[in-house]
Write a sequence for this structure.
């Protein structure tokens, strides 16, 4: 559950107002997921409390453990 790490200081990010915040850097990040197979940006789906990711290019769901997560400065 601690895979939300600040890309600049490696501290764990805080979830705040729909974004991820690093108190250490005073920066806010947006989490983006990319397809491990075609590198397209994935669409996040919220189903039964568990998040899953859908690739519109592959036209299939991608396992959360395989997707590539990137944090961009908001
Ligand atoms: Zn930081
Ligand atoms: Zn894909």
């Amino acid at each position: 559950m601690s895979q939300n790490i600040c890309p600049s200081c490696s501290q764990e990010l805080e979830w705040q107002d729909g974004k991820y915040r690093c108190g250490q850097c005073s920066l806010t990040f947006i989490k983006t997921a990319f397809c491990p197979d075609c590198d397209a940006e994935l669409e996040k789906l919220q189903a039964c409390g568990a998040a899953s990711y859908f690739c519109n290019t592959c036209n299939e769901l991608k396992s959360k453990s395989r997707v590539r997560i990137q944090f961009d400065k908001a």
Summary: Residues 50 and 64 are 10 Å apart (CA to CA).
